[in-house]
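Look over this record as teaching material.
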Amino acid sequence: MTPKWVRLGVGLVLAGLLATAPAHAARCITSQGQFEAYKQALAQQAASAGVGQRGMQALQQSGISGITWRFESNPSSQTGTRYRSPEQFLRSRFSSVNSFVSGAKRRLGQKAGLFQALERQYGVPGSILVAIWGYETSWGGYTGDTPIVSGAVTLASYCRRHPRFEDDAIAALKLVDRGVISGNSRGGPSGELGHMQFLAGNWIRFAVDGSGDGRADPNNSADALATAANMLRRNGWRAGQPFTEGSRNFRVLSAWNDSGNYQRAIAYAASLIDQ
């Protein structure tokens, strides 16, 4: 690992970015024109958190994500802001509940050995994992087209979200350092990663090599599914216990997504997949 004093000194451009950064924590912004100033302040925090040269360069090169800003500026457009039945929530993304469930069952059968192994190790049933996988990316069919670093930094900068997601922005820079992603990698509009759309901080905390190739890659379905199972277990999932609304395991789903609509839809879909 590169010593901290070396990381702080790399690159003339990087040094200039740090030199102009304020001594206090980055302040949230209310207009897109303030984004570069926010990056300068975040650069100082990132350096103090141990982000290295590649991560700092990715921060310097990041731009404001227009789709992220528009999405956060219009909360009413977000599916989690008003009550929806599980059926309505699933149909907002898929043609029908039946098509979602049949697609999930097909993937569950295709990777039966993996899902069974994950349930034995982590206690999380395949129906839950395949439902999350399907809802997030249509089982890897679409993992997003927003630059991950730009999306994560934009989300962290926005006053309605700041500072809750600032750690995830810095985590995304650390993932660039580690070679898990690059400054050009693309994902969800909030900086989500790979098959299961992890926030960067969750990938750092819970990443598992599920494929056995010696590295954890969010774009590898086995790694992503194993990491999801690990994340749920470490947040309190109990093997063999129900996941119906009001149960302990249902509440654990809030660690994945704090939308009640999302939690109800995943539990509902998983119950149908189990049938």
In short: The longest strand covers residues 146-147. The beta strands are 146-147, 186-187.
